[in-house]
Amino acid sequence: MAEAKVAPRPLSPHLQVYKWSWTMAMSVVHRLTGIALYGGIALFAIWLVALASGPSAFDTVQWFFGSPLGYLILFVYTWILMHHMLGGVRHLVWDFGYGMEADQRIAMARFTLIGSVALTLAIWVVALIAF
């Protein structure tokens, strides 16, 4: 019986083939921020458990979140939340069929990054002034 000749399969494109773009980078960051949100929810759960556990446990957790490291973690988590939210809005706009032109996609990706930084700073300025 004769052997069938099998043509070599083409290789799929991979990250070494693609040139990085704003939309690709913001897509990766959107996924990473989505993963990081789980860590923030865990910290929030720890805070809630400490609140329910009594004054000494709550004071310990409040001390940590009031430390410079705690403030840094909360600041970064605020940026993560804002970036993921704006990335979700960008995808919602795309779901309605808008912003599909190349220049619009790049502008929206840049706005996601710039807007998340601006919103984070605004939230922290208002919080630090109010409290």
Alpha plus pi helix count: 4
Domain tally: 1
Biggest beta-sheet profile: none
**Total strand count, please?**
0
Low-confidence stretches: none
Question: Which key terms come to mind for this protein?
Answer:
mainly alpha, elongated, 3 helical TM bundles of succinate and fumarate reductases, 77% helix, 4 helices, 131 residues
Structural description of this entry:
This protein has 131 residues and is an all-alpha fold. The protein has a single domain, classed as 3 helical TM bundles of succinate and fumarate reductases. It has helices at 22-53, 55-66, 68-95, 102-130. The termini are far apart. The mean pLDDT is 92.
Q: What does this entry show, briefly?
A:
This protein has 131 residues and is mainly alpha-helical. The chain is built from four helices and no strands.
Record the SSE blueprint:
Layout: H1 22-53, H2 55-66, H3 68-95, H4 102-130
Helix pairs in contact: 1-2, 1-3, 2-3, 3-4
